[in-house]
Amino acid sequence: MEIRKVGILGAGTMGGGIVHVVAQAGFQVVILDISDSLVNEAISRIEKSLSKSVEKGKIPLQEKDQILKRIKPTIRIEDLRDAELIIEAVVEDLKSKLDLFRRLNDLCPSETIVASNTSTLSITRMAATVSPSERFLGLHFFNPVPAMRLVEVIPGLQTSSEIVDTCMDFAKRIKKIPIKAQDCPGFLVNRIFMPYAGEAMLAAQEGATRPEEIDKTVKQNGFPMGPLALNDMVGIDVGVHTFPILNEAYGERFPVPLLFERLFHAGRLGVKSGKGIYANGKADDEFFEIIRKIQDETGIKNTEFSVERLILRQVNEAIYCLQEKIATADDIDRAMVLGTGFPCDGKGVGGPLHWADEKGLDWVLDKLNYFKDTLGPRFWPHPLLKQYVAAGYLGKKVKKGFFQY
Ligand code: CAA
Prior knowledge:
Layout: E1 5-9, H1 13-24, E2 28-32, H2 36-55, H3 61-69, E3 71-74, E4 85-88, H4 94-107, E5 113-116, H5 123-127, E6 136-140, E7 150-155, H6 161-173, E8 177-180, H7 189-205, H8 211-220, H9 227-234, H10 236-250, H11 258-265, H12 285-298, H13 307-323, H14 329-340, H15 352-359, H16 361-375, H17 383-390
Parallel strand pairs: 1-2, 1-4, 2-3, 4-5, 5-6, 7-8
Antiparallel strand pairs: 6-7
Helix pairs in contact: 1-2, 7-9, 7-13, 10-11, 11-12, 13-15, 13-16
The chain binds acetoacetyl-coenzyme A (CAA).
């Protein structure tokens, strides 16, 4: 099927970003939300971002105007009827999403491709609301959408291979790099990324060190931004919605840091509300009061901070994904580089599994055991890691680990 017109449901950060890249690639786009003001705010954010590209000389002024002309704002779902592809990017609430998919099912022709940008909810479950279900899949973008190259393509149990191929091709046409991942809570990238982002929140709420120090140390280790600044950019509200879903799915390996909920209730949603972990670029008195109360409740404070504490949570989850065949070792690492800027060499080779090979898998196993004993069972090393070490697969130093050298 040829895709010419794309409908985007939801004009938030992710919806707006998707509209931006799809319109910039030459497609007609309809953007829908529940009020004119929400849709218009998204369009003015896109306009601002395009103006920056004009200023930098990346696109001529006429192109900016043409891109904006291709975007049609609406609050009427009927305006999506003739789109060949519809991408849902509304709030991470299963019921709201299922209601929308049922309405789309009644409204659109049976060949319309329906995709969800969910980061945690089951594609297979959502696919069951449209008929035929084989035209439903996950297309998961990363924030900020114009800057991050990755799109995860997630087939549900019912998705046909033709629809997957069409959407892999669509992702390339909007200048993204698609990587296929199996349907599981968090899929590939969020499943590996969220333990790391959550561990940074735990370290902050425990007062392991100051938030600024956590972010600075991570950046000194080659990451493009610190995990706490990233949580503020993605949105504290997103954490409040997504962490409990992963905790429900995977149990104690994914504890929910109390800090998300406490910041949310204090109206600190991150960049979108003006303050989150940071206020004007630094942690303020209100933040320290919030973590003091958490420490009184949990009795956990002044724990150890090191960048390994954060990265090892990614490594261990990457091993789970490898063994469950959520993706290959190559794709796991490539996805983490393209979707989150995990440090890599000049050829783009890097990622949590390469990081582990570089450090030595015996060292990784010892460190995970140490953190399991000192910080808790969320660090329990995956059994596959023990098998690798026992078999002499120790990483780069012996030329074999998760990769061959
Ligand atoms: N909108 C549009 N473009 C943006 C942007 C935004 N909000 N922020 C940055 N960019 C673009 C810039 O225009 C610039 O483009 P050019 O190189 O073509 O000029 C490029 O990105 C680099 O930006 P900057 O030079 O201003 O800043 P930087 O080098 O510090 O990069 C960053 C900024 C891209 C955000 C970088 O810090 C980064 O990669 N951070 C990690 C982001 C990440 O991990 N995202 C995933 C979060 S998890 C998620 O999204 C999952 C989910 O389900 C919600």
